[in-house]
Amino acid sequence: MSASMSGNTASSSSSKKSLKAFSDDIWKNKTAKINAELFTLTYGSIVSQLCTDYERDFAKVNKQLYSMGYNIGVRLIEDFLARTALPRCDSLAKTSEVISKCAFKIFLNVTPQIGNWSSNKDSFSIFLDENPLSEFVELPMDAARELWYSNILCGVLKGALEMVQMDCDVYFASDVLKGDQTTELRVKLNKILKDEIPAGED
Amino acid sequence: MAIQTILVINKSGGLVYQRDFVATAPRLSSNEYLILAGTLQGIVAIASQITPKSLQIAGKGSAKGGVEPAGGAAAPLVPYVGTLGATTASGTPMGSFLGPDYFNDAFASCNGRGLKHVTTDQNSLFLYQTLTGIKFVAVSTQPTTNAMAVAVAENLLRKAYCLYADYVMKNPFYEPEMPIKCELFDQKLGVLVGQL
Asked: What residue in B sits closest to A11 (Cα-Cα)?
């Protein structure tokens, strides 16, 4: 309990550490888990089925994964907020920190690195050092060029951020499955939907 | 104090859920409940406009005291009131949450300037608003201005939000923004309110 308290009482200097402790506590003590292999294999079978269904038109598969993710994101954000009751982030830097240390931690038990900020601070990258979705995956030759295997994550982030009134573009910039050095997810904030922020907030 | 009615209002001010827990509760027609929901939506917006500047500044002042959450400058913390109204038996499954309770720490109310609590001679009404704009409203059978009762109500409503996240949002056949007709949600909410 003391750990999670400190998460809420974080001052800017110590917020890094305490947000981490706060999320660790929620992940460890408050969240039911499932077998990671079951999860990975389920996702794998969905992607491979989609490839078959769309006759290996990988652009369509990407789009479909994205839209599935979007539908998950707009719902999952409620779970995230109910669980954490975190206040609104006052900057995109804070948002990025909450996404990596809190959201990825609680739902996927990974803490990706944040970096590659644009000069006007409106976009950043999420570097997935480990990706639970693609644990056992090797892309076939024909898919390696076009398919973004974990594209569902982009949709989830897009949907979730939209529900907290942030209009963002989210897309994969690189993926180790395609032979790249890193798995990089790019998030670009278009605008904050000010008119839709619920009345009563400060 | 018992809970008489719980309402859920979606982000556009539409009533998506209404349930009475007390048999003697005065019956309102569904149209009247819709009007109540819309009115509350409007009043919250008005309240956020007319909250005195001094209160807002006072809120911000205490934030500098170092007890406020990092993200919201003036968001007041709601204390955790213990397992009151939660599953008492730790063996009971709680959806995607691990027991014994949905959460166990003080939390920030993001509704810093809006309406949170209304008291009349007969009832009190409590309102919990989420970042996505959903409002959870509880009406009690007795009027109260007790800070503890307000904290209990906010805890209860956040737990209702946890149930909503599990049994409404994760129901694949529920369409967002539409009236909630989920039996599991009804059932779990009944248990939650019953244990209060």
From this structure: B70
